[in-house]
Design goal:
alpha+beta, Arc Repressor Mutant, subunit A, two-stranded antiparallel sheet, 11 helices, elongated
Length: 302
C-alpha cells in the first residue's frame, strides 16, 4: 500500500499539468526509496487493475491517447526552445550584478506548447537584487524586444545573501529538482547546496548538476558598471527600486489585475527576493493537489 500511495502522489501531481510520466520519471519522484523490482511489480499491478494506464511508454490516471500525444509534441517544442533559452541566458548574465541563471517553468520540464514562455530563475549579488532586476526589466520593455519578450520572463529573483527557499513543500521541491542551470559564476551550485532539504521530498533524485561550461566570466563592461554602484549610492538605489516596485505591485494586487493568462498578478518582495506572490497560484495549487489526492485515495481504497 505504501508504494501505491507514493505512485499515486506522483501521478496526481503531474496530472494537474496533464503530463503523463515514464516509469523512470515516476520512480525518481517517489517520496521513499524502493527497489526496482518492487516498483515495477506495483506499476504492473496497478495497470492490470485499470487504475493507471500505459500509453506510448507513459503512465497516466486516464486512458486518454491525447495526453501522451500532447506530451510528446510538447517535448519536441521544448527541445527547440532550449538553445534560445541558453542564448538569452548568456545575454542576461552580462547585466550588472547577475550571478546565476536557471531555466524554470514548463520548458525546464521538457515541455512547451505554442503559448509557452521561457521562465528564468535569477541569482544576483547580495544587496543588489533590485538594481539588477530593474536593469533587466527595463531591457525587457525596450522596443528591441517588442514582439519577443515572452521569451524573457524573469519572474523569480533571489540574491546571494539568502539562497534558502522559504517555502518548503512538494511544489518548490519539484521546481528545484527540475531547474536547469544555464549561466553563472558558482552561485547556482551554492544555491542547490543551500536547499538540500528538498531531498526529503524526492530521495531518489539528484539535484541538477552545475556543469563547468555553465560558468561565465564577467565582461569588462559589467565590471565597470558595477564599480560605479559598489558604494552608498548603490545601497540607496537598490532600496529605492525595491520600495518603488513593491508599491507598484501592491496597487496591482489591490486592483486585482490579471496577466495575459488570466491569472491574478502579485509579487512578494523583500530585500533579498522578488517572486510571484504564493497566494495567487502556489497556495491554490497545493490545496487543489491535496484535495485531488484525497479523492483518488478513496477511489483506490487506500
Amino acid at each position: 500500500m505504501k508504494i501505491d500511495i507514493s505512485i499515486l502522489k506522483v501521478l496526481v501531481y503531474f496530472d494537474l499539468f496533464q503530463y503523463p510520466l515514464s516509469s523512470n520519471e515516476i520512480r525518481s519522484f517517489l517520496d521513499h526509496h524502493v527497489q526496482e523490482n518492487e516498483f515495477q511489480k506495483a506499476l504492473n499491478a496497478l495497470e492490470s487493475k485499470n487504475k493507471i494506464f500505459l500509453i506510448n511508454g507513459f503512465y497516466s490516471l486516464h486512458n486518454d491517447l491525447s495526453l501522451t500525444e500532447r506530451r510528446m509534441m510538447g517535448n519536441k517544442r521544448a527541445v527547440l526552445l532550449m538553445p534560445k533559452a541558453q542564448r538569452i541566458a548568456n545575454l542576461l548574465y552580462k547585466f550588472p550584478y547577475v550571478r546565476g541563471i536557471g531555466v524554470s517553468g514548463s520548458v525546464s520540464k521538457d515541455f512547451a506548447d505554442e503559448y509557452s514562455d521561457i521562465d528564468y530563475f535569477i541569482i544576483t549579488k547580495a544587496n543588489r537584487l533590485w538594481i539588477a532586476r530593474t536593469f533587466l526589466h527595463l531591457f525587457k520593455k525596450s522596443p528591441f524586444l517588442k514582439n519577443n519578450n515572452k521569451h524573457y520572463c524573469m519572474n523569480y529573483f533571489i540574491d546571494e545573501a539568502e539562497l534558502l527557499i522559504e517555502e518548503k513543500n512538494i511544489y518548490t521541491a519539484t521546481e528545484l529538482f527540475t531547474l536547469v542551470p544555464v549561466a553563472g559564476n558558482g552561485s547556482m551550485k551554492n544555491f542547490f547546496l543551500a536547499n538540500e532539504w528538498s531531498h526529503s521530498y524526492f530521495p531518489n533524485r539528484s539535484l541538477p548538476p552545475v556543469k563547468e561550461d555553465v560558468k561565465r566570466s564577467d565582461s569588462w563592461l559589467k565590471k565597470l558598471a558595477e564599480s560605479f554602484l559598489n558604494n552608498k549610492l548603490g545601497d540607496w538605489l537598490d532600496n529605492y527600486f525595491m520600495k518603488l516596485t513593491t508599491k507598484r505591485w501592491k496597487k496591482k494586487e489591490e486592483e486585482q489585475k490579471l496577466n495575459t493568462k488570466g491569472e491574478r498578478m502579485g509579487l512578494k518582495t523583500t530585500k533579498h527576493c522578488s517572486k510571484p506572490n504564493p497566494i495567487f497560484f502556489h497556495d491554490w495549487f497545493l490545496s487543489n493537489y491535496e484535495r485531488r489526492l484525497e479523492e483518488m485515495k478513496k477511489e483506490w481504497n487506500l
